[in-house]
């Protein structure tokens, strides 16, 4: 049996979470933790539901996880996170959704080009600026995105657009 730390198993869990989220909401059931008894590994979702940017605790480590679709291909990306990253995401939905939309756009573009070189460094720089930067830093990250207009539209649809 695969361990919870196995990226393919995490992707599979996220996929099934995506396909069953409607049924789970109807039943008001939310699965927040999973444990693999064979190795004692734990994976707990602390923030997020379904197919969105989420924070996980895996064996004591915090991870920001984001699933990305590119055509008919889906892949989950995980990035190390700190307690302060988690606290900002938990308390500031505008920064959470901005991070989600910008990371998704950049990672999707990378997937389409099959380009994964230095992806960790790029993602961590974006995470740092959006979660811990000034409001101007967040606006700058939106503005330099390949499709800034689309990100602004997504934020407005989420009720988070700036006037």
Overview of the structural elements:
The chain has helices at residues 7-19, 21-27, 83-91, 93-112, 119-132, 135-143, 148-157, and strands spanning 33-36, 41-47, 54-58, 61-70, 73-81. It has 163 residues and is α+β, with helices and mostly antiparallel strands. The chain is built from seven helices and five strands. The chain is globular. Residues 17-38 have low confidence and may be disordered. It has one domain.
Terminal Cα separation, in Å? 51 Å
Gross morphology is: globular
Sequence of strands across the biggest β-sheet: 1-2-3-4-5
Count the helices. How many? Answer: 7
Strand content: 15-25%
Domains (count): 1
> What is the total tally of β strands?
5
Average pLDDT figure? 80
Question: Strand pairing plus helix content: what structural class?
Answer: alpha+beta
**Main sheet makeup:** 5 strands, antiparallel
H/E order of the elements?
Answer: HHEEEEEHHHHH
Rg is: 16 Å
Runs in which pLDDT lies below 50 for 5 or more consecutive residues are: 17-38
Helix content: 40-55%
Q: How are the elements arranged and paired?
A:
Elements: H1 7-19, H2 21-27, E1 33-36, E2 41-47, E3 54-58, E4 61-70, E5 73-81, H3 83-91, H4 93-112, H5 119-132, H6 135-143, H7 148-157
Antiparallel strand pairs: 1-2, 2-3, 3-4, 4-5
Helix pairs in contact: 4-5, 5-6
Write a short abstract of this structure.
The protein has seven helices and five strands, in the order ααβββββααααα. Helix content is 50%, strand content 21%.
Keywords:
163 residues, alpha+beta, five-stranded antiparallel sheet
């Amino acid at each position: 049996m695969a361990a919870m730390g196995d990226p393919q198993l995490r992707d599979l869990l996220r996929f099934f979470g995506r396909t069953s989220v409607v049924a789970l909401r109807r039943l008001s059931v939310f699965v927040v933790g999973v444990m693999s008894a064979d190795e004692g590994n734990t994976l707990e979702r602390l923030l997020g539901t379904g197919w969105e940017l989420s924070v996980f605790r895996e064996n004591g480590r915090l991870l920001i996880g984001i699933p990305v679709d590119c055509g008919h291909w889906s892949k989950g990306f995980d990035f190390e996170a700190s307690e302060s990253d988690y606290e900002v995401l938990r308390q500031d939905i505008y920064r959470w959704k901005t991070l989600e939309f910008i990371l998704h756009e950049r990672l999707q573009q990378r997937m389409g080009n099959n380009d994964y070189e230095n992806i960790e460094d790029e993602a961590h720089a974006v995470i740092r600026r959006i979660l811990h930067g000034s409001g101007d830093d967040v606006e700058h990250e939106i503005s330099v995105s390949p499709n800034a207009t689309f990100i602004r539209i997504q934020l407005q649809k989420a009720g988070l657009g700036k006037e």
